[in-house]
Structure formats: structure tokens, C-alpha cells
Design a protein that fits this description.
This protein is an all-alpha fold. The protein contains 14 helices and no strands.
């Protein structure tokens, strides 16, 4: 395992620049799709599921390519990937804005998620590990703090632009933002990564370790994949179905407002992790994240028919699940770095991302089918059980790490 004792911390301005680029990229390439899909479908005269089918296909394709992207970053560094992703995101968003046919729009969605491989969390985490080694945990948390506001800013901005100027103008505006703001930010970050690499002092030959680091347990990475898969399943399920689920179990739309508590809860958990990370190991963080999400899902599954307790339980769900979800992204970035070291880190992130994107692509359909056949409460009970399994797998990971 690499110790990277000579790796310096990157300046805060570099973290801030990359975090802002992440915020804009997630907002433009991910959160806009759900907000604009009904308008796009109406324009093209197709059913809304057609647009989401293209989006699911884009997630699957990018997931298949994620390990290859990880190997490229491992071999050549993250800098050029960040810049290439910014350029590709401009082309993808311009394609979406100008698409004359739903097939062309679908190609734009695929291009957008391929760009996401280059400009989303995993490439940014790899850049931090490349520059800071195992000291990157703090920077990874700070990136998630900034990028965590993507939905808060881009959802209302998307709706405003679409209402005022149409969905094509919204995508065109986001293409312009990627070109005039994100691309310069990625170029700046890339230059700073190069300077950090050049400024790192070489380790003297005498200081090289005499023996190789201990080999991790054979099952350690598969268990980590299991944790990330279960957490990704829970997040994807609620990201796609939370509003209708809250309406279904909370007497109409009476409890939909609690969904607004999830974002602040995510950010608060990340602030807390940044403040206390010296006391919380990476695997313990995984256990905490899984436990919070499991508790939140349990609260949500008990909301229906609870009368006066329905609102407190729904609020508890938003606070607990939101906090666990906020920590889960840090877990995905920090745990493989701390358990396995910097060598091979980008490759491992690519493998985790492949599973996560595949799960994100198929989960909305599976959960929709479950709700239709077994009901909302039974589906929530099943989700709560997956939360328990995530806690158990995290505990296994702590034992064998």
C-alpha cells in the first residue's frame, strides 16, 4: 500500500475549481434529463419511457466502459481526461439542444454519459489520489460538499429556462456553461495537477520500503463491491420513485415536502465527516453510511397507516437516509484508496462504477414493477432489507480489512 508521505495537499482554490466543475457537469449531464424528459417526449411525439430508455442505455454503455476509463487514467493520469470530458460534454449538450429526432437525442444522451465518465466523481477522485495519495480523503469530502449542490441549483434553473425559453434553449445554455466555465476550470485543474506532480520530491532510495505491503484479503474488494451495489440500488430506487412513493403512503401529496430535507441532510453529513474524519476509519464510515440508510428506509416503510406518527417517521427517513446517501459517495471514493492504496486506485474506481451504473440503469424499472405487482409498502420493506444486508457486508469488510 502506498503511503505517499511526500504528497502535498492541493491548494483550496484547486479543490474549489474542480468542485465547481463537478457541480456544473452533474447538473448539466445528469439532473437535467429527468426534469426535461416530459417536454422532450412531447416535442418528439413519443412516450416518456422512450426518453428514459435511452438514458438507461447511456448508463449501461458508460458502465461497460468505466473499467477501461479507469485503466487509462491509471496509465496516463486524470488531467487530460478531465479536459476531454469537458469538450465532449459541450458536444453532447449541443446535440441534445439541436436534435431533430429522438434517435439523435438518444445519441446525445449516450455521449453525455460518456462525458460523465471523464468529469464526474470517479475521475475527480482519481485526480485527487494522483496528486495527494492517501491524504486525499479530505479533498474528496470537500469535492462532494461542493458538487452536492448540483441538484439544488440545476433543478430549479432547468425548470426556469425550460418554462421561459424551451427545453432546447435549456440544453443550449448548459452547453455554453460547459464551454465558457467548466472547460477553463478543467484546464486550470489539469495545470495544477501537473505542477503538483513536478513539485513532489522523489523518495530517496534508502527510504524505499524493504518489503511489499501486505496483500489484501481475497474477498475484500468483492465485499466492497457488494456494499456499493446495495447502496447504489437504494439510492437509484428512491431517486426515481421518491415523490410518487411519498404521495402514495402519505395521504396524497401531504408528505412530499419531506423530500426537500434530503439535500441539506447530505451536506450536513459531509460537513460532519470532514470535521471528524480523523476519528472515523474508512470502513467504519461505510458501516455508518449503510446503517443510516437502512434506518431511513425502515422509517419510510412504516409511514403508511401510522396516523400522527407518519410525519415524524417521514422526516426521520429524510434525515437518516439523506445523511447515509451523502456519506455513501465518500465511501466509494475513500474506502478503496485507504484499503488498497493509490496504485490501481483508478482501475478499482472504474470497476465499482461499472456496477453502480448498471444498477442505476435497471433499478427504476425493477422497482416500478415491484410497486405495481406487490404494492408500495412491500417494496419499501424489501428496500429496507437491502439496507440491513449493506450493514452486514460493511461489518464483514471491517473484519477482513
Amino acid at each position: 500500500m502506498d503511503t505517499d508521505g511526500t504528497a502535498p495537499r492541493l491548494p483550496r482554490r484547486v479543490i474549489g475549481a474542480l468542485g465547481l466543475a463537478l457541480l456544473c457537469s452533474y447538473g448539466s449531464l445528469y439532473y437535467t434529463v429527468g426534469a426535461l424528459a416530459p417536454r422532450v417526449a412531447e416535442t418528439f411525439g413519443v412516450d416518456k419511457p422512450v426518453i428514459f430508455a435511452w438514458f438507461s442505455a447511456s448508463l449501461l454503455i458508460s458502465g461497460l466502459l468505466a473499467p477501461r476509463m479507469g485503466r487509462y487514467i491509471e496509465a496516463h493520469g486524470a488531467g487530460r481526461i478531465l479536459v476531454a470530458g469537458a469538450l465532449l460534454s459541450v458536444a453532447a449538450l449541443a446535440t441534445l439542444a439541436l436534435a431533430p429526432h429522438p434517435v439523435v437525442f438518444g445519441i446525445g444522451l449516450i455521449a453525455g454519459q460518456l462525458a460523465g465518465l471523464c468529469v464526474f466523481y470517479d475521475a475527480a477522485f482519481a485526480a485527487m489520489a494522483e496528486a495527494e495519495g492517501e491524504k486525499a480523503r479530505g479533498s474528496i469530502t470537500e469535492l462532494t460538499l461542493i458538487a452536492g449542490f448540483a441538484s439544488t441549483t440545476y433543478w430549479p434553473l432547468t425548470v426556469f429556462l425550460a418554462d421561459a425559453f424551451g427545453w432546447r434553449a435549456a440544453f443550449g445554455t448548459f452547453a455554453a456553461i460547459q464551454l465558457v466555465l467548466v472547460l477553463p476550470l478543467e484546464l486550470y485543474v489539469t495545470r495544477q495537477l501537473g505542477r503538483a506532480e513536478g513539485a513532489r520530491p522523489a523518495m530517496p532510495q534508502a527510504a524505499l520500503p524493504e518489503a511489499p505491503a501486505p496483500t489484501p484479503h481475497l474477498w475484500l474488494f468483492p465485499v466492497l463491491v457488494g456494499v456499493v451495489t446495495l447502496q447504489g440500488f437504494q439510492i437509484a430506487a428512491l431517486h426515481a420513485h421518491l415523490i410518487p412513493v411519498l404521495g402514495a403512503i402519505g395521504a396524497g401529496a401531504g408528505l412530499v415536502w419531506v423530500s426537500t430535507l434530503i439535500g441539506p441532510s447530505q451536506v450536513s453529513a459531509r460537513f460532519a465527516e470532514r470535521a471528524f474524519q480523523a476519528r472515523i476509519g474508512p470502513v467504519a464510515l461505510s458501516i455508518l453510511s449503510s446503517a443510516l440508510m437502512a434506518a431511513g428506509l425502515f422509517f419510510l416503510s412504516r409511514v403508511e397507516h401510522m396516523g400522527a406518527l407518519a410525519t415524524p417517521l417521514a422526516v426521520g427517513f429524510a434525515l437518516f437516509f439523506g445523511a447515509g446517501q451523502g456519506l455513501s459517495y465518500i465511501v466509494r471514493g475513500v474506502v478503496p484508496l485507504m484499503l488498497f492504496g493509490r496504485k490501481g486506485y483508478a482501475v478499482r474506481l472504474g470497476r465499482l462504477l461499472r456496477v453502480n451504473l448498471a444498477v442505476s440503469a435497471v433499478t427504476p424499472f425493477l422497482v416500478s414493477l415491484s410497486i405495481e405487482r406487490f404494492g408500495t409498502t412491500a417494496t419499501l420493506d424489501a428496500l429496507a432489507v437491502t439496507g440491513v444486508f449493506a450493514v452486514l457486508l460493511s461489518a464483514v469488510m471491517k473484519r477482513i480489512a
